[in-house]
Amino acid sequence: MAKASSKKVQSLILLAAVLLLVNNAAAAPAGGFLGSWELISQNAGISAMHTQLLPKTDQIAVFDASVWHISRLQLPQEKRPCFWHHNKLTNQTAEDCWCHSIFYDYNKNAVKALKVQSDTWCSSGGLSADGRLVSTGGFQYGAKAIRYLWGCDTCDWVEYPEGLAEPRWYSTQVMLSDGSFLVYGGRDAFSYEYVPVEKESNKAAIAFPFLFETQDFLERPGNPKGRFRLENNLYPFVYLLPDGNVYVFANNRSVVHDPKANKIIREFPQLPGGARSYPATGTSVLLPLYLPRDTNKPVDAEVLICGGSVREGLYLGEEEKRFVNALDDCARMVVTSPNPEWKIEKMPAPRTMADGVLLPNGEVLIINGADLGSGGWHCADKPSLKPMLYRPNAPEGQRFAELAPTDIPRMYHSVANLLPDGKVFVGGSNDNDGYFEFAKFPTELRLEKFTPPYLAPEYAALRPAILEDQSDKAATYGKWVYLRVKSSEPLTINYVQVSIVAPPFVTHGISMNQRMLFLSVIELKNNVAPGVDEVVVAAPPTSALAPPGYYLLSVVNQGIPSHSIWFHLK
Ligand SMILES: *[C@@H]1O[C@H](CO)[C@@H](O)[C@H](O)[C@H]1NC(C)=O
Ligand SMILES: *[C@@H]1O[C@H](CO)[C@@H](O)[C@H](O)[C@H]1NC(C)=O
């Protein structure tokens, strides 16, 4: 009896140790490899303000804005005629013969010119269930636009300038469990609306007072210009929750919203310390969801928010030219918990305008931005050149690691996107009202790739390779998926994980629809062929856990991810 129980204890200890190993597999990058940078384009022609990785084409859609009627890439002959822009404010009409959008082929490092006319400045977007970019909102004549872009060699934008009911500048788009899109907010748009079917237009939006309530102002008694509008609640962080409702975070408050009934179901504790949404521009991710084998078990959803600025950051930068420390904390909260509370940790450095990238092994890369100030033109200083790794499962105090620095500042209007090879595409930075080469922070046209520590050469032997081509692997909800994996040593069940990550629409420190799940591993069969193992996983059981569409699937061995393949969930 005693023997049996001590054996049980022993195996429990062993199990705990193994779990700890799996969770912390990449906790201490071997050989101290802190990642590396490569310049992949000296001049992409446009500054990367918005990006969306597109499935199956090796291309990333990159675009900025047409408001300036200029870029560094002429509209090619075959895309002409040029277009005429009328500026409502100045009542001036000007011809525009420049590109504001490209496809960037991240394998060939090639640029292909595209033509977008309705102004996409500070717009929102997402990848539809069938794999095209659906882009919404923007500036002036683009503010109500809905646009579509497929990722093929001959594809170009299809635009519907009057699709939305309300103008939406700095709004957030989110996919619901049925594959439809909602768009929340935007400047002076205290409402939300569904993206209608193509070619149709919305008649009315649905009121959402939470976005009115969360605006910030700075009172300036006696100042003839009146109070200063800080906002701090634009580009809200919005996530689909495992029960199909929607988590909405704006400024320092957050709620669960039932969009069908338009009801706020619960409100969470406020997040202290300052402001988090645009222009304060903290960054946020929904931490990976872990799917249990027993599909009746509930799945926890935890939100992470890092950095931001003091409430009056925009005012200090814009009016007083003073740049104070950005916020230097990360806060996380299990938003499905009956007793939710923010758990706050200090980052190694302050940060505003960072991008939060979910990596295929479940770590979070905090990259780009600045140490001082807030979002907005010329409102920040001291570029944050070092990316930061956040390991959600490491013990508190051991979660952050500062990585190798770049020498290119990525300030306001920067982007970062995970690529199928596990590297991170980095672009943008435009702190100027136009294209300026000689500003303190010039309009940045260079593109880089960042190689995270898990791609260190010393991990090469651990890295599995999925034996599938790059075309999409279709999967049905709840069904098993069979993956053949090549590895130098046979995989073991306790060290193997399979992740899927939905490629987000990235702009202004927000990664819309970014979502990652660790699938339940059903079985591992070693040596189904020489040097080949088979991993059997269960596709997510419901579309509220993982809405339909394209994900990057990766097999992770001891924290080291494989090159990913496209996984098409329907
Ligand atoms: C705008 O300009 C046009 C022609 O240049 C002029 O006819 C029109 O009255 C102007 N509109 C306003 C509102 O100033
Ligand atoms: C949240 O922000 C509001 C201003 O928008 C402020 O009055 C309130 O004190 C903040 N809450 C916390 C907990 O800091």
UniProtKB/TrEMBL annotation:
It comes from Citrus unshiu (Satsuma mandarin). The keyword Signal applies. InterPro entries: Gal_Oxase/kelch_b-propeller, Gal_Oxidase_central_sf, Glyoxal_oxidase_N, GO-like_E_set, Ig-like_fold, Ig_E-set. Residues 463-568 form the Galactose oxidase-like Early set domain. This is Galactose oxidase-like Early set domain-containing protein. Keywords: Signal. Residues 1-27 form the signal peptide. Coiled coil: none annotated. Residues 49-454 form the Glyoxal oxidase N-terminal domain. PANTHER family: ALDEHYDE OXIDASE GLOX1, SECRETED PROTEIN-RELATED. Pfam families: Glyoxal_oxid_N (PF07250), GO-like_E_set (PF09118). CDD domains: E_set_GO_C.
